[in-house]
Design goal:
The complex is a heterodimer of chains A (about 325) and B (about 500).
Chain A (H helix, E strand, L loop, with lengths): L1 H10 L3 H23 L6 H26 L7 H17 L5 H25 L4 H20 L4 E2 L2 H8 L1 E2 L2 E2 H19 L1 H11 L1 H5 L5 H27 L1 E2 L7 H11 L11 H20 L4 H38 L2
Antiparallel strand pairs in A: 1-4, 2-3
Chain B lengths: L7 E12 L2 E12 L3 E6 L5 H8 L7 E6 L2 E2 L5 H6 L2 E4 L11 H5 L6 E2 L2 E2 L1 H15 L15 H14 L4 E5 L7 H16 L3 E5 L3 H7 L2 E6 L2 E7 L5 H9 L17 E10 L3 E9 L3 E6 L5 H9 L6 E6 L11 H6 L2 E4 L3 H5 L6 H6 L7 E2 L2 E2 L1 H15 L15 H15 L3 E5 L7 H16 L3 E5 L3 H7 L2 E6 L2 E7 L5 H10 L5
Parallel strand pairs in B: 3-10, 3-11, 6-9, 9-10, 15-21, 15-22, 17-20, 20-21
Antiparallel strand pairs in B: 1-2, 1-4, 4-5, 7-8, 11-12, 13-14, 13-16, 18-19, 22-23
The chains are: A mainly alpha (about 325), B alpha/beta (about 500).
The structure holds adenosine-5'-triphosphate and magnesium ion (MG).
Chain lengths: ~325, ~500
């Protein structure tokens, strides 16, 4: 009986609260734990470090969320980021392009790689896993090729990007948050987003409803490539240099963040804002553990456990959400 | 084995089951005797499948007891129920589409030697069972995904029959079977009955129920209305109890005023399933399409709609002299052709999403502005169709997968009605729909024709088609065997045309 009442009172909360409350609580919990165990955790430096770290991975995670929603996957984001960054560096240093032109080059690389992924997947109906795995190698090879396997030091010309700030927030951080907000709106409020969710749920039913899923899927891979190249600009600016090894393992970090946020690998279900929470949780965990002096090995061990725990929690969160929807609905039905 | 006695083998008392927002079953009593066929009938959403899934261990009741052979029975999952000798053939198909027919039938116990499957034994055993249910001409080696929905349903039935059991539950086994296959199924049921197996039989085809069942239980809104021996009931008694009102058995259409030719198909061919098919439908007309299972009805309609690419053939629309090119369903829909597919779960619905999302999918442009969804508008559209078709759901936000089978079917129909096409093709539109709603759907088809739409209905129920169609086209082995007008047809003529191409092959 009591269980029912508790269930009911959870169910009475507005939907967006239960959607994000779990993630916000988890994040708060981490902050409290590290605040208590590390002496200097609650300092401006800590938060600056985190705010500095997250923009590029956040932007990649947004693209990955879209890809996972259509039941795809993009393993090439890390390498594509390296290649796009390399082209940015090359344009600035070798060809002396002005910054805007160099950025355009960089974004073009991301878009091209995304388009190549998408076209092959759509045209020959191949699994995204394999195709993007191929692109992972191709783009990494490309990055080594154009940089001749050396880190290109850029310095001043790109540092303006990280140095710019509004109200104390760095430009990259603001761009990342803006992309999160825009991404969430596109996903939940636009026809395009609706089609993506539908494709992830049952692509054949979508096709038989008179909608051609192929251009939509292509658009998602292009979008993911585009966002990855924006991340490349930010990443390169932060390091003041283009490193052909940049973004190594980024694809797995991004997938982990998105999955912690409750997006389903099977497609059809997910949220961009939750992916952002996922990124923050991983970042806070990393920074916090480093501050209490954890070794790299412990860090990875714990991060791994958090990923699994998050997915299990999400299973229950989803159930609550479902019964909540029902209760709300039946309350509305009989006023 | 006990011979057919009238001892009660199973009893359920006072079963309650609720889902958030609905009381699916309340205080239900149900019992089954050895060697009896006990039919369960009721409207869509009455709770039939829910009751059966409780018996078969798929779901747990909120309260109530069940006894099997005078012993407490509390199945812990489906496998446990099967260990107790209770098997169920579910309403929705649950086959593994990439495995072969034989593998699907024996999936729980593949004959093997040290883990290596003995295919000769497997296929031999499968062939024997398949012949019994009328799948004799299907190769046990072919993957299930290549079969039509009707044949898949028979594979499910074959799987159900393949293992010895004491109680067999059949949830709408005949929903997409034609008369011939139904007879074969009945033969099997009679055989099991003679062996003392208790059978629970769910169907919306009431005539069928009166033929095969010994007793009938009527369920309405989750409550048992009555349980009677079939001999004491007539078809209309049962319908009256189910629906709570009388359905007038009127002729639905009185001559049509057919207009311009809306769709003309010439020489359509696709593989061996569709061979040189030509036909036309006019505005204001309803064309019925019948044929035995596997006669190419569904394949023809899919080829017209662009769901599969035809090898050859031309399609002319609305009296135009030039054929249209339909390369994919999108082209068909843009040209005003709609296809309500036969397999709702795989091809019609986004099961994990809300009713509202499913209904609006075909026409998102009209519930959005500049690419932005207008959710309020979308909800009002959904509510309009929920009301118009009497879809039973807790609200337009309910997930479609949670609806009862018949109500899911109505959602598929709603989605195409909303698209408002000029040529509407319905492939088994009344599959799994209760008598009352079936009647309403045929009324709706008549109304669509009245409004000047061209309507094509594929159905395995010839009687229904004869009540609603202006013309009936009979397909046989991929060809058009005959087309009959309203005054020319009879059940015998239609049947002999349906067999015509198979004779002497
Ligand atoms: N998993 C579920 N979650 C929520 N509601 C459910 C669920 N399963 C069934 N219901 C509801 O329970 C009621 C009974 O459903 P059930 O499937 O038993 O009907 P049925 O008699 O088999 O109908 P049909 O003839 O259409 O198959 C329906 O209102 C349905 O929406
Ligand atoms: Mg049912």
């Amino acid at each position: 009986m009591r269980k029912k009442i508790i269930k009911k009172s959870i169910a009475d909360l507005p939907a967006f609260v239960t959607d994000y409350i779990g993630m916000a609580l988890a994040l708060a919990l981490l902050l409290v734990i590290f605040g208590l165990s590390a002496r200097n955790f609650f300092t401006l430096t800590t938060f600056r470090t985190i705010a500095n770290q997250v923009p590029d991975i956040t932007i990649v995670a947004v693209g990955m969320t879209f890809v996972l929603i259509i039941a795809g996957i993009d393993l090439s984001v890390g390498s594509v980021m390296a290649l796009a960054g390399a082209v940015l560096g090359l344009s600035l240093v070798e060809f002396n392009f002005p910054l805007p032109a160099a950025i355009v080059m960089c974004l073009a690389v991301g878009i091209l790689c995304g388009a190549a992924n998408g076209l092959v997947i759509v045209r020959w109906r191949l699994p995204a896993f394999i195709v993007t795995l191929g692109m992972l190698e191709i783009a990494r090879g490309g990055a080594y090729l154009v940089t001749e396997s050396r880190t290109i030091y850029i310095g001043g010309p790109v540092e303006v990007i990280t140095d710019a700030s509004i109200l104390g927030f760095s430009l990259p951080f603001i761009v990342a948050v803006a992309i999160v907000v825009a991404g969430q709106l596109v996903l939940s409020r636009t026809v395009f987003g609706r089609y993506l969710i539908a494709i992830g749920t049952n692509e054949e039913a979508v096709r038989l409803s008179g909608i051609d899923p192929r251009p939509l899927k292509l658009a998602v891979f292009v979008l993911c490539g585009f966002l990855t190249s924006i991340a490349a600009v930010i990443h390169t600016a932060r390091l003041s240099s283009a490193n052909p090894n940049a973004g190594y393992g980024l694809e797995l970090q991004a997938i982990a963040a998105v999955v912690i946020g409750g997006t389903s690998l099977m497609g059809g279900r997910g949220s961009v804002v939750s992916s952002f929470f996922g990124v923050l949780i991983i970042a806070v965990l990393g920074t916090g553990l480093a501050q209490i002096g954890a070794q790299e090995s412990t860090k990875r061990l714990i991060t791994g456990c958090v990923i699994v725990a998050a997915v299990i929690l999400d299973h229950y969160r989803h159930r609550i959400r479902k019964s909540q929807k029902q209760v709300l609905v039946s309350a509305k039905a009989k006023p | 084995m006990k011979s057919a006695t009238s001892g009660t083998v199973f009893r359920a008392c006072d079963i309650d089951k609720s889902f958030p927002g609905v009381q699916a079953l309340s205080a239900v009593d149900f019992d089954l005797r050895a060697g009896e066929v006990h039919a369960l009938v009721g409207e869509n959403g009455a709770g039939k499948s829910t009751l059966m899934s409780i018996i078969a261990g798929v779901q747990k009741p909120d309260s109530g007891q069940m006894c099997l052979y005078e012993q407490q029975y509390e199945p812990n999952g489906r496998a446990d129920a099967e260990a107790h000798g209770i098997r169920m053939v579910m309403q929705e198909l649950h086959l593994i589409s990439n495995l072969s027919v034989a593998e699907n039938i024996f999936i729980e116990k593949l004959p093997n030697r040290f883990g290596i499957i003995d295919y000769d034994k497997l296929n031999g055993a499968a062939r024997k069972i398949m012949k019994q249910v009328g799948l004799g001409d299907v190769d046990p080696d072919v993957p299930v995904r290549l079969l039509g929905v009707g044949q898949q349903q028979m594979v499910e039935i074959a799987a159900g029959l393949s293992r010895r059991c004491r109680i067999l539950v059949l949830d709408e086994p005949t929903a997409s079977l034609t008369d011939r296959e139904i007879e074969l199924l009945f033969t099997q049921i009679r055989k099991l009955k003679a062996e003392g197996v208790g059978i629970i039989y769910i169907s919306h085809r009431i005539e069928e129920v009166t033929r095969i069942a010994d007793r009938v239980t009527v369920l309405r809104d989750g409550k048992v209305i009555s349980t009677n021996p079939t001999s004491e009931l007539s078809v209309s008694d049962i319908i009256l109890m189910m629906v709570g009102r009388d359905l007038e058995h009127e002729q639905l259409r009185h001559g049509s005023k057919a207009g311009q030719v809306a769709l003309r198909v010439v020489g359509l061919t696709r593989g061996r399933k569709v061979r040189d098919v030509s036909f036309e439908v006019r505005r204001g007309e309803i064309l019925g399409v019948v044929g035995l299972m596997g006669s190419g009805r569904t394949e023809t309609m899919r080829a017209v709609f662009g769901a599969d690419r035809p090898d050859s053939g031309k399609i002319f629309l609305y009296g135009a002299g030039e054929p249209v090119e339909i390369r994919m369903p999108r082209d068909a829909v843009r040209n005003g052709i709609a296809l309500v597919t036969e397999d709702r779960k795989e091809q019609g619905l986004l099961s994990a999403l809300a009713v509202r999302v499913n209904i609006s999918l075909t026409r998102l442009r009209d519930v959005s502005r500049f690419g932005w969804m207008d959710i309020a508008e979308e909800q009002s559209v959904a509510d309009r169709y929920i009301a118009a078709l009497g879809i039973r759901c807790s609200s337009n936000e309910q997930t479609v997968g949670e609806l009862s089978g018949g109500n899911q079917q109505k959602v598929v129909i709603a989605k195409w009605l909303y698209r408002d096409c000029d040529v509407l093709i319905f492939d088994e539109p009344t599959r799994g729909i209760d008598v009352g709603a079936k009647f309403e759907i045929y009324h709706m088809l008549a109304e669509l024709a009245e409004k000047g739409k061209a309507v094509i209905v594929v159905s395995s129920d010839t009687k229904e088609l004869m009540a609603v169609c202006d013309r009936i086209m009979v397909m046989s082995a991929g060809r058009v065997a005959a087309t009959f007008g309203r005054n020319e047809w009879s059940q015998e003529k239609i049947m002999s045309a349906a067999f015509s191409e198979y004779v002497g092959v």
